[in-house]
Fold these 2 entries.
Entry 1:
Amino acid sequence: MRLFHFLFVFLFIGTQNWAQIPHWLGGVDGNSAKIKAFPTSEQAKQDAVWEILDPASGKIRRIRLSLRKIGSHSIWSAHATELDENRLYLYRLLVKGQDTTYLGNFRTFSQRPISFRFALSSCSFRPGSPAYIPIVEFKPSLFLHLGDLHYENIETNRIEDHIKPYLDRFLLGKKEQALCLQVPMAYIWDDHDYCGNNSSGPSACGDAARAAYLSAFPAYEPYRMGAGLAHAFQQGSVRFIVLDLRSERRESNIMSEEQMQWFKAELLKSHQSHLVSVVLSSVSWYGNEQDNWGGFPKQRQEILDFVNEQGIEKLVWMCGDAHMNALDDGRNESYPLKKAPRIPFPVIQAGSLLSFGSHKGGTYSHGAFVNPLGAGQWVECQAIDNGEGALALAVEGKQMMAGFLEPKTMFQETFFWSIPQTKPVSTKFEVDSSKGVFQVKISNPDRQSGIIYRLRTGNGRILDAAATGSSDHLLLSTANSSGIGPLFLEEENGDYKRVYGLKSAP
Ligand SMILES: [Fe+2]
């Protein structure tokens, strides 16, 4: 199947004219999406329309693309609004006189509990990463690029200079276009795609880089206009908080005081709404280098103290910058904290798409995998929300060598959270997954009758179910748990229900 997929991607990219109009989608939320496309100067003279088809209802929407010229670049853009929530849409670009078929697709997000996938990576020194096709095959709702989209190190204050590498080093790549046709993006810069190696802080170059980003990338709205690019958006029970750790740096601060206050407010709002906060950081959280969080110990400490004091438990930190995939479950956080007990949170490094390997410090419980030459690395995530108080995030580190057909899995782990229930629970259970049989031994010390227990997979399939009677011990089991993924234990008694996360992906 995988070989056919490769052939399909190769053939359709090679034969469709409009698909060669470089474009990307982003800014997706529950009812809207944005597109930016780059026609040739000849194409730009034509009227063009972004046509969006809802295959479920057959309804077609046509939105005229508005043209903006910046230097030698022509940019078409459109913002589709009033779309339906969690709906798959097909789209095409209709340029006058061209007969085309629908080739692109995207799915709108949802504000309600929903299970979905996303992928992330960073650092594409060269275009054509072997990671892109497997990422498309994973079918994520979103691809997050955590910086160094290119390494052109533009230091000028001309906006067009900053737009050029978006095309030359990303959008003109065939594999990149295959990705952009099927997966909306979110993106934040790091140094090389801001104003050059180790660049940071406000400057005329920074203003041009920001203007280029906002005019050429289909971006989420920054939390305040006129400053950095930090922004946040939500899909299901996950709040994505994207930090700008370049343009607001000054002396000992990696972000401005305004961004810090906004960030804390986002974390708190997310916590109070029982959402998982996924923080996206273009530099490594671990390590002691001057150019990553290690160089900014005061603000790093301030964040850790805030997380601890507010009891923010549903938090994951995801980073670019180091050219490696790595995962720590939180046990190796080494900073001293004012208050105990400390709340650990997972720290993930995702990268690189295609760059020389590098390790920027830190110890990782599940390993740190520096890029071998020619390999593309990324991280795949599945957010699983059963809508009844249990959230899981299954994370896999992936690597694809050039010329190989199958990606390799470097690490996998599932993190579980539950939304606090008001009713006290007395159930206790033990999990035994040895000997190829997966068993949950449940004890019910209060000897309540009529409680139903179910063993359920992340995609909702019931593996085993039983009601307790007078017995205070119950065994749920499945013979072969390999490949099943996250497992949940559900406890139900009339209107009352509670769900426990049990098992990491095997
Ligand atoms: Fe990089």
Note: The chain has three domains: 1-107, 117-418, 428-503.
Entry 2:
Amino acid sequence: MKTAIIGYGKMGREIEKILAERGHEIGLIIDVDNRADLDTRHLAEIDVALEFTTPATAYENIRCCIDRGTPVVSGTTGWTARLPELETRCREKGGALFYASNFCLGVNLLFQLNRQLAAMIDRVGGYEVGIEEIHHTQKKDAPSGTAITLAEGIIEHLHTKHSWVNDLPAAPDQIEIRSVREGDIPGIHTIRYESADDRIELRHAIKNRRTLALGAVIAAEFLCGKQGVYTMKDLLGNNHIKTDE
Ligand SMILES: NC(=O)c1ccc[n+]([C@@H]2O[C@H](COP(=O)([O-])OP(=O)(O)OC[C@H]3O[C@@H](n4cnc5c(N)ncnc54)[C@H](O)[C@@H]3O)[C@@H](O)[C@H]2O)c1
């Protein structure tokens, strides 16, 4: 497939390597200096765009792809309050959009375990829950998109929790998300349940950015030629995932 990379930073460069390894063509690379090239002419023959930029620019980049009929995979975090607008726009225009707050396949297994554990805790009671996320110091948003997805998964299943707070004392119906910024850590997430007598932890540590870029490229392969709005749930429910091509 012929691809466009929008955002040539840490993720864009990692995605470039994986695209090449998997035999895909890179027809366009957009970053701040040439962002005006994100237009109809340059997107004309692109099968799918991969967008990893900044919270301030993701919305416009994705909208631009949808309006020009280019399927787009995005993983930019810290802006998703406006994601529903773009999902609606995509459906109206017959476009294709794949968004994930975390493209690591293992994190998406964690999302499923997190929901199951919250449902089990809901039945037994007696545990207080908290989330901790640790990332590199250049990360622009806090809490991480992944921690928000984890909190939402808990809120769906644990009837005592209705919202989350970041780095503030939590009220009884809130989940505290603690954000730590340290070194070059790609991402560690821990969900911790604590009773008077014991502690249960679900913990996931990403070892490198490669896993994130690979997930995004697999999502792009999945999206290519499709219409509609997709997430990792659609991808993981699909038994054509091959991570070792
Ligand atoms: N969903 C996931 O799995 C996942 C994984 C890693 C990072 N992320 C998110 O992806 C985003 C990018 O992460 P990164 O580590 O590559 O950051 P980065 O800062 O290394 O790269 C961002 C790049 O976007 C460029 N950019 C800024 N404005 C632009 C515009 N208008 N058009 C095109 N390019 C523009 C910047 O110049 C920079 O090169 C962040 O929001 C991060 O949280 C998501």
Note: The first strand starts at residue 2 and ends at 6.
